[in-house]
Amino acid sequence: MEYNSGLAFQEAISSSRTYNLEIDEQDLNAELKEPTRSVNSITRKINEALASTRKRGFKFGRKSSDPGFLDEYQGQGRLTRCQALLNQDIIASAYKVDGRKIPKHDALRILGQDICSLQSVLGFIEVTINNLDVKPFGNQRRELKMAMEGFRKAIATVDQRKKALYNEKDISDEPITKVLYPGGVDAKAPLIWNDYSAWFGTPPEEPPFLHMEAKKSRVQEFTWTSSNIIAVFLENDDTKYFATPLKPVEEGLQADEIKIGDIAILAGQYMIIAEPREDSGNIPIEYFLMTNSLKVTSVEDVNGTRRGANRRPVEISMEVALFR
Predict the structure, then answer these.
(1) Mean pLDDT, range 80-109, rounded to an integer
(2) Using an 8 Å Cβ cutoff, are 151 and 122 in contact?
(3) Closest CA to 239 of 185, 313, 188
(4) Which residues contact 241 (CB under 8 A, 6 or more apart)?
(5) What's the maximum distance between 2 C-alpha atoms anywhere in the chain?
(6) Are the CB atoms for 276 and 216 separated by under 8 Å?
(7) Tell me, what DSSP letter sits at residue 113?
(8) CA nearest to 274, candidates 210, 226, 207
(9) What is the mean pLDDT of residues 221-230?
(10) What letter would DSSP give residue 273?
(11) Between the CA of residue 30 and those of 5, 33, 62, what are the distances in Å?
């Protein structure tokens, strides 16, 4: 059995995109509920028949190999899997037993215990029915055997689900991995934006460079906080910039995204990474080669004592020219 609920979210930026977040809940052992109830009902009838036989002293009614009283099976509780889907992409998968969150390996263990325990109980019931010689109860043997065939089919269904879950790729059980900047989720929070102006050069400039007036600095230090988030500090700037590559980057290629000493030009929502051109000469315009660009997703003001109280602000370049 599956349950589904959905919400719509918007990015907290001016050009916001809408994302559909759905939460799906699947009952992993629902098929075992009816077999468990029925098996326990049969168990009680068998125990009543055994007790009646012994009470009346009908020793001939029970063979020497008859088993004793059977215990009812309590089950392991309601086992569910909840999946968070963002635009149909699974971003998290969590398992719960009676509402309590558990790891995936515990969910597989519980399914295995349910399957093995019910199979054992069915085996005991069959042995008991075959060895119990009580006429009122004996008339129901055929119906009981047919019912137990249905139980075994339900158990087989859950067993197949268990095998499928085992082979599924493990993913995080938390849909929110990290909140970088709490204010960023507030619709009233200030938009991350660095003013700039840009235009293409005109002949006789060949090729026409992209000219910009923007804030310019150098990368002083940076840290990859995750596979797609870089925390960047710039020279003479008490702001920590959280930036993301514009496309997925393999771990072995992360060193090519940004380096200490790189030129960083802040333009709009982006941090342009560049290197000086060796043939710039003694001209008033600074020429750079653009090597990469990152999107600034959030910022954080850093205590001035950490990086020095008497820092100059980020340089505002009168004009730079970029070529890639």
Answers:
(1) 87
(2) yes
(3) 313
(4) 231, 232, 233, 234, 271, 296, 299
(5) 117
(6) no
(7) H
(8) 210
(9) 91
(10) E
(11) 19, 6, 36
Residue 313 and residue 217: Cα distance in Å, rounded? Answer: 10
Question: Three-class SS of residue 99?
Answer: coil
Distance, in Å, from the CA atom of 216 to the CA atom of 219, rounded to the nearest integer, reads: 10
Q: At 231, is the pLDDT very low, low, confident or very high (cuts 50, 70, 90)?
A: very high
Task: Write down the pLDDT at residue 222.
Answer: 96
Tokens representing residue 120 in the block: 């054992």
* Helix intervals (H) in the chain: 33-55, 104-131, 135-138, 141-167, 304-307
B/e letters for 113-124, b = 16+ CB within 10 Å, e = fewer, are ebbebbeebbeb
Residue carrying the six token digits 């019910």: 118
Tell me the sheet residues that pair with 222. 232
Spatial CB neighbours of 32, under 8 Å, sequence gap ≥ 6: 75, 114, 118, 154, 155, 158
Name residue, tokens 């790891």.
Answer: 103
Give the integer Cα–Cα distance in Å for 126 and 121. 9
Distance CA 125, CA 209 (A): 85
Closest CA to 123 of 107, 153, 108, 145: 145
End-to-end Cα distance, the chain: 56
The length of the chain is 324
pTM (predicted TM-score): 0.47
The closest alpha carbon to 196, from 73, 316, 70, 27, belongs to 316
Tens-place pLDDT, residues 239-276: 999 999 988 888 888 999 999 999 999 999 999 999 98
The contacts of residue 283 (CB under 8 Å, 6+ apart) are none
Given the structure tokens 């098929």, which residue do they identify? 31
The pair of structure tokens assigned to 196 is: 């700039």
| Angstrom distance (rounded) from CA 207 to CA 171 | 48
